[in-house]
Design goal:
With 263 residues, the protein is of the alpha/beta class. 30% of the residues lie in helices and 25% in strands. It has a domain at 62-88 and 100-255: P-loop containing nucleotide triphosphate hydrolases (Rossmann fold, 3-Layer(aba) Sandwich), CATH 3.40.50.300. Bound molecules: adenosine-5'-diphosphate (ADP) and magnesium ion. Magnesium ion (MG) is lined by residues 76-77, 193.
């Protein structure tokens, strides 16, 4: 845990004031799909309290591609996990369409995750004893109106490798299968926690291109966590987080492709 967090230090970048951030986080004119208001998260570990999030306000709009940037320990995963119903805030409210996720029972949160949220993590989390196709089918079997598992694999250009086991696939290929699994349920939001963190440069770009293409074709709200500032160019909006606070929100006039950026 970082000392800045324990001291409660907050870094505000550039000219952004609290009021300006408030405006940027609640966008007028379009109904948000997600609305986080005053979300705080405190982890208690014995005597110590860790303020992972501090009064975060954030809306997510239909079809948005958002990059969430921040140093290690700044609260990125906590924010993502709360959006995805894997964790609950200590204070504040999270709304998904008409639903108040903060008031949901455990069973309701499970249903919310199952029907509406696709997760992609740094380390793929595929089941080693199942083929690519079977890994995807595991999810589509319990989803309401899923894609065909083979079609989901084709979306990430892994249709030819459907009968391969994870151990027979490279890291980038495994991550593409994990993305197919996440999008196969036709989620409303795709939450990606450092999806390229374990991949080499070229493979990382390939995976980002897949995420961007799915966002373009399916209009799935996509949130990508990274500490790689170059990836910010791919987004509609870039949210910078530091010591549990949103310190900057930037809107890109144009979205770059992974081919346009380098790091
Ligand atoms: P990031 O993803 O930006 O690296 P996290 O959201 O994982 O940051 O963590 C934010 C802060 O909350 C860190 O100080 C981290 O140690 C702490 N934290 C995260 N999860 C837990 C947990 N389950 N229990 C205690 N502290 C946690
Ligand atoms: Mg994290």
């Amino acid at each position: 845990m970082s000392s800045a967090l324990q001291e409660g230090g907050t870094v505000v970048s550039g000219e952004s004031s609290a009021a300006a951030l408030q405006d940027a986080s609640h966008v007028e004119g379009q109904d948000p799909v997600f609305r986080m208001s005053g979300v705080s998260k405190v982890y208690r570990m014995g005597e110590t309290q860790v303020h992972a999030l501090r009064e975060v306000d954030l809306d997510l709009l239909p079809g948005e591609f958002v990059v969430l940037l921040g140093a290690s320990g700044s609260g990125k995963s906590t924010l993502l996990n709360i959006l995805g119903g894997l964790d609950r805030p200590t204070a504040g409210q999270v709304r998904f369409r008409d639903h108040d996720l903060t008031a949901a029972t455990a069973a309701e949160l499970t249903r919310y995750r199952r029907e509406h949220v696709g997760f992609v993590f740094q380390f793929y989390n595929l089941i080693p004893s199942l083929t690519a196709l079977e890994n995807v089918a595991l999810v589509t079997e319990i989803a309401e109106s899923p894609l065909d598992p083979g079609e989901a694999l084709s979306l990430v250009e892994m249709g030819e490798r459907r009968d391969h086991f994870p151990a027979q696939l490279s890291g980038g290929e495994q991550q593409r299968v994990a993305i197919a699994r996440a999008v196969a349920k036709r989620p409303d939001v795709l939450l990606c926690d450092e999806p390229t963190g374990a991949l080499d440069y070229a493979t990382g770009k390939l995976v980002l291109r897949v995420l961007q293409r799915i966002n373009e074709e399916r209009r799935t709200i996509t949130v990508v966590i990274t500490h790689n500032a170059a990836i910010a160019g791919l987004a509609d909006r870039v949210i910078r987080i530091s010591s549990g606070r949103i310190v900057d929100i930037q809107r890109n006039a144009i979205r770059l492709t992974p081919e346009d950026i380098s790091w």
